[in-house]
Target: Cytochrome ubiquinol oxidase subunit I
Amino acid sequence: MFDQFDALLLARIQFAFTVSFHFIFPAFSIGLASYLAVLEGLWLKTGKPLYLDLFKYWLKIFAIAFAMGVVSGIVMSYQFGTNWSVFSDVAGPVIGPLMAYEVLTAFFLEAGFLGVMLFGMERVGRKLHFAATLMVAVGTFISAFWILSVNSWMHTPTGYEIGANGQYLPGDSWLAIIFNPSFPYRLVHTVLAAYITTAFVVGGVGAWHLLKDRTNAHARKMFSMAMWMAALVVPVQIFAGDLHGLNTLEHQPQKVMAMEGHYESHPDGAPLYIFGIPNDEEQRLDYAIGIPKVSSLILKHDLDAPLAGLDTIPDDEQPPVAVVFWSFRVMVGLGFAMLGVGLWSLLARWRGRLYDWPWLHKAALVMAPSGFVAVIAGWITTEVGRQPYVIYNLMRTADAASPLDAPAVGASLLAFVIVYFAVFGAGVWYILHLMHKPPHPGEYGVKRGDKGPIRTAGITPGPTQDPTDESRRNLSRDKREPETLS
Model:
């Protein structure tokens, strides 16, 4: 059934599908791990049970999201070896160690302390448990550090040398590879996006419960904390995004040209197009609606600064403009919508109506999934804007794929679609089910089984009891009964 498709296209669709699913969960768990650390720290500092209740409430949700993130991430390395084996062979000496560092540092750190964080509150001291929560939060950040370093190197490759067999090998300094030119901007922009994504989920859940009961103290607290994040961090994210855009203009100009819809060069100041329909065949933006010279002001900080267009780029090196143009606008549009909600919450807080404006709560509820949509749109802008290269200016995507036939790739793609929607659909449904219930005093958190962990070998030991208690006397009596009956 896949004979009429192109194997390269199917491989790209498969990777885009799986990484989009995967990206959702780390974008949530990175921010949620830090939020849990804040909640537990506030509980230890103030002694207020409300913070502990919120910690246990969100801990259950974090456990599921973290597990789905780990499982979906494993598939990424699987695809490197199947669909993109040429890329793995050529770039493996550079990206392989970086991904190994992620496992050796971040993954082991998270795995080592996750059990204590989930199940150890009643078994270790408060400070030790808080330290475990901090380590999990730090581990999620370290994981983002290494993965984004790999991804950034593919956009702005530095510090490499080409071996005799055509492989890209580490040069004199690993620091030049790790801290490549786009990495600091991408790291800040992505981590802030994860925090904002979590803030709007928390704010949406708080708004949902406030719409049902404005007196719910737990809903009030998490809605207030989320709106502080929206009001304070979203402006910082917009500023970080501007710096990231300037860096992209320097190192990947055709990506910015596609984002802006600039098919033609503008020697006297470029317009900012709000709307348009990219036409790659005619190399123009149809039905364009723009603001004169504002693009030059944003990108060059000068109204009259010249900006080159795609007419300076060969046709075979241009990215798909329509995809990049619209995904960028989705990301930016949602960013300013988030800013609007944050400013609205500041007005409500100033007037003492933060918990009494239902329209603000409805807006926060509608915006709850906006962070996920924005990070996916940003990822599409970044990755599609790099095309036709998988390693910018060094290796084309068409040259990186494995020599597979379309049916082989299509069969695995179909299997991924079915399994992902079944498994992760069930996980997302359960997360929404947990969010539907309001947090309450005495929240129970993550529960172990009543009989403890399952033992795969040996006899499960019985409970240790005092020999004089009633159960022990009953046991002794039961053992004597056969003799009496005989």
